[in-house]
Amino acid sequence: MKVLIIEDELHNAKRLKAILEDIDPEIEVLAMLEGVTESINWLKEQDHPDLIFTDVRLTDGLCFEIFSEIKLKCPVIFTSAFDEYALRAFKVNSIDYLLKPIKKEELIKSLHKFKTNPHPSYLGQMLDDVAAILKQQQKNYRTRFLVPVRDSFYTVMIKEVAYFYTEYRTTRAVMPDNQHHILSFTMEELEEQLDPEVFFRVSRQYLINNKSITRINNYFNGKLHIVLNPEPAEKIIMSRDRSRTFKQWLDR
């Protein structure tokens, strides 16, 4: 079985590849792609795989932009984190869905489902139906936080936050005047709640507003040094794998 993985987080893509190969050594992962544009170009130039695993939300758009450009010739298994309503919609439409982090047992069930019906005649309509559902429930991204200040509360507007960072399991919002607010959210929760057009997770510790970027410097081995205002306490060095996705995010 030939498989294509579309996932903008390299560690998630590698983990999925490892589980697939552990389940069945004959599974061949043809490529691990990161975004909409890259996937469209690959599918135009290469023979289509037997099965595609894709995250729904990629750095440069929703995966359905790929399917609107390419007439797909194989089934899709989605890997993402949508709410229960959307999950039911996937199941009803017989398009499988795996909640991250992907569990081996669930992946085995999905592969069995694929092998039982590898070429559903209604694939195109299913993709259209699920795309419509996702557009209807496109997130109303968070616009503000209510944070406690002494014996009162203070409203922090999201658009005014320069960046978020985590240290010692504590998450802080940093404002342009370098004022810090402690938040009761993990970075993963923030990443789900904030508009991906505005905020980008440049590392495990930092989630930045594009307006806070003052300079981007080349670093060693294809890495990038991101300079922010206000300047953080430590250098922000972005990995080589993440840097390409980051540049695509900025250049659109």
From TrEMBL:
<feature type="domain" description="HTH LytTR-type">
    <location>
        <begin position="145"/>
        <end position="252"/>
    </location>
</feature>
<dbReference type="Pfam" id="PF04397">
    <property type="entry name" value="LytTR"/>
</dbReference>
<feature type="domain" description="Response regulatory">
    <location>
        <begin position="2"/>
        <end position="115"/>
    </location>
</feature>
<dbReference type="InterPro" id="IPR001789">
    <property type="entry name" value="Sig_transdc_resp-reg_receiver"/>
</dbReference>
<protein>
    <submittedName>
        <fullName>Two-component system, LytT family, response regulator</fullName>
    </submittedName>
</protein>
<dbReference type="GO" id="GO:0000156">
    <property type="term" value="F:phosphorelay response regulator activity"/>
</dbReference>
<keyword id="KW-0597">Phosphoprotein</keyword>
<dbReference type="Pfam" id="PF00072">
    <property type="entry name" value="Response_reg"/>
</dbReference>
<dbReference type="GO" id="GO:0003677">
    <property type="term" value="F:DNA binding"/>
</dbReference>
<dbReference type="InterPro" id="IPR007492">
    <property type="entry name" value="LytTR_DNA-bd_dom"/>
</dbReference>
<dbReference type="InterPro" id="IPR046947">
    <property type="entry name" value="LytR-like"/>
</dbReference>
<feature type="modified residue" description="4-aspartylphosphate">
    <location>
        <position position="55"/>
    </location>
</feature>
<dbReference type="InterPro" id="IPR011006">
    <property type="entry name" value="CheY-like_superfamily"/>
</dbReference>
